Amino acid sequence: MLAFGEECVPAALLSKRQCADASFGTHTPRISTVPDPPSSELLARRWFATVSRGAFDELAELLHEDVELVSKIRTGAVVRGRADVADFIRDDVAPSLFEAAVDVYTPLDEEKVIAEGRLRWIDEERVIRDDPVVWALEFREGLLHRFVAVRSTLDAEMVLGVSR
Question: Pick from 2, 85, 114, 121: CA 20 to 30 A from residue 67's CA?
């Protein structure tokens, strides 16, 4: 039964015209009232879109001067500084990377976001890997400040200094 005015009317008795005139779905938010995603999510999407295009030379423009990167592809590698991170991505990551695909973005605030997805790459023994991965990303001044591959969303929250 559908609510029409003050009375409940069986749906089968309503004509198409009555349904069109009724204000069904008025509780559903309009597209224009849905808030934009936080800037951290938009920046993370831009980062991963650039990686997906294979435009590794453009990534340097998205890096903060004091950026820190903790790699999944090169276990234990911690790289700091725009020039060193850009070189590391170009020389060590790009040749091994097939795909970094994000399935879920979880923005924590305007600067911090957790990205969950899969990493398809070739390891040092030339074995093709397809691993689930979680990345903790932090942006400052619209640029990537921290990029850390971790094991879980809980680890990502700890890296980003989030408490629940």
Answer: 121
Contact 45, 111 (CB under 8 A): no
Quickly tell me which residue has 């921290």 as its tokens: 146
For 105-123, write each residue's pLDDT tens digit: 999 999 999 999 999 989 8
Return d(Cα 116, Cα 114) in angstroms, integer.
Answer: 7
Alpha helices in 10-80 (DSSP H): 16-21, 39-52
- Of all residues in the chain, what percent are helix, strand and coil, respectively (each to 5)? 30, 35, 30
In this predicted model, what pLDDT tens digit does every residue of 55-75 receive, in sequence order?
A: 999 999 999 999 999 988 887
**Residue 108: helix, strand or coil by DSSP?**
coil
Domains and CATH numbers, the chain: 2-32 (no CATH), 39-159 (3.10.450.50)
With contact defined as beta carbons under 8 Å apart, do 152 and 134 qualify? yes
When comparing pLDDT for 21 and 71, which is higher? 71
Buried b (16+ CB within 10 A) or exposed e, 5-32: eeeeeeeeebeeeeeeeeeeeeeeeeee
**What is the C-alpha separation between 140 and 91, in angstroms, rounded?**
25
Farthest CA pair distance, the chain: 72
If DSSP codes are grouped into helix, strand and coil, which group holds residue 37? coil
